[in-house]
Design brief:
It comes from Malus domestica. InterPro entries: FBD. This protein has helices at 2-14, 37-52, 86-89, 94-104, 106-117, 137-143, 156-163, 165-171, 204-221, 227-232, 255-263, 278-284, 287-295, 309-313, 327-339, 351-357, and strands at residues 28-32, 56-62, 76-80, 125-131, 148-151, 243-249, 269-275, 317-321, 345-348, 367-370. It is α/β, with parallel strands linked by helices and 371 residues long. The strands form 2 sheets. It has a 5-stranded parallel sheet with strand order 3-2-1-4-5, with helices on both faces. Strand 6, helix 11 (255-263) and strand 7 form a beta-alpha-beta unit. It is globular.
Length: 371
């Protein structure tokens, strides 16, 4: 955590003065920090960096460890009421406090976020950036159709251990036993049992369940369904990413796939899945317009100027499922198959698409499978 915080401090010091800030983007980001000092500081540092990059910043916070708006006059602050008893607010059981906040914050946070999204006097909201420990924000963001990014403030080694908690429980490393503190965790070298990030709590089982859900929360946060976000907030480089599952809704362009292919040079496995969006039909008013402009439009996929590196050198398996034989889907599949020079297998679940793909292979070793 300290390492991440110091990195952000260094980045902030290297930023030019506000007079040299980048042009305003006309977009607002909403941040929601966990009210623990080790979580608040990194979130504020991130807010400073993003503000310098041209985004307007709105911060939603609770009355616990409350933020002082006068120290950040360039941000907009909204405090939400969270009702906790004196005993609940003063507990030393950090995990119990976090779980309780997830319950108590749900309603006031949902109301505050909905109000901010409906404010036509402010810039459009590009996305929500929430602390990883606020797991309930996934449900709220999905209901409001808002893209969500999670900020993890702990060290990378801690997150690796958190993601492996189900395995650690299965192998008997957890709960931690005093007699095994110096024992190496064979599945997570070079960690020892004493290095595992475990909080003291009265209910260890709830803690293990909460931590096991962190990995799923991170995966869910990448189901980005905001076209505003794709256009205005280019994703960072994912140099270490080897497996990607991308869920796309009917109404949104495929710009995100283009961006991620370019940003993931070592990608080896790709899954593209369709999720129907009932609201999309309503937006177009008439079903015929929906079919013509969304499902049967050939212009929803734009090929890249140059073939992404991952297609030329690393991408070996591609799965496309949930889609019917729409023209834009055929264009995507044909492009991937033709330019995938090291592809070994492409799997589709549409007979019409399967027949057209049999003539498009760019790799002699690739075979197309219909499931």
């Amino acid at each position: 955590m300290e390492e991440n915080y110091q990195s952000m401090r260094k980045l902030q010091r290297e930023l030019p003065l506000s007079s040299n800030m980048e042009e305003r983007k006309g977009l607002r980001l909403i941040l929601f920090p966990m009210p623990l000092q080790g979580h608040i500081n990194p979130m504020l540092e991130l807010a400073n960096v993003l503000h310098h990059k041209g985004f307007s910043i709105t911060i939603i916070h609770t009355q616990f460890n409350s933020l002082n708006p006068t120290t950040h006059p360039h941000f907009t602050f909204h405090s939400i009421p969270v009702e906790l008893s004196r005993t609940e607010a003063s507990t030393n059981d950090v995990m119990a406090f976090i779980l309780l906040l997830n319950v108590k914050c749900f309603e006031p946070f949902s109301e505050c976020l909905a109000r901010l999204l409906s404010d036509d006097d402010q810039e459009p909201v590009a996305c929500l950036i929430s602390d990883l420990l606020f797991s309930f924000t996934q449900h709220v963001a999905e209901n409001l159709k808002l893209a969500r990014i999670l900020l993890r403030t702990s060290a990378a080694s801690s997150f690796v251990a958190y993601a492996a908690f189900p395995l650690l429980l299965e192998k008997g490393y957890l709960p931690i036993q005093e007699s095994r503190l110096e024992e190496p965790v064979l599945e997570l070298p070079p960690l020892k049992v004493k290095d595992l990030p475990v909080l003291k709590t009265k209910d260890p089982q709830k803690y293990y369940e909460a931590v096991s859900g962190l990995k799923k929360a991170v995966e869910a946060s990448y189901e980005v369904n905001s076209l505003y976000f794709v256009k205005e907030c280019c994703p960072p480089a994912f140099d270490q990413l080897t497996q990607l599952k991308l869920v796309l809704y009917d109404c949104y362009r495929w710009d995100l796939l283009t961006q991620l292919l370019k940003k993931s040079p070592n990608l080896e496995s790709l899954v593209i899945e369709n999720k129907e969006d009932e609201e999309c039909v309503k937006d177009y008013g008439e079903h015929d317009r929906y079919l013509r402009n969304v499902l049967y439009s050939e212009h929803r996929w734009r090929t890249t100027e140059s073939v992404p590196i991952c297609l030329i050198s690393h991408l070996k398996t591609i799965t496309i499922r949930g889609f019917k034989g729409y023209p834009h889907v055929k264009k995507v599949a044909k492009y991937l198959l033709k330019n995938g020079k090291v592809l070994t297998k492409m799997t589709v679940n549409n007979d019409e698409l399967y027949k057209e793909l049999m003539l498009e292979r760019g790799s002699r070793t690739c075979w197309v499978e219909l499931v």
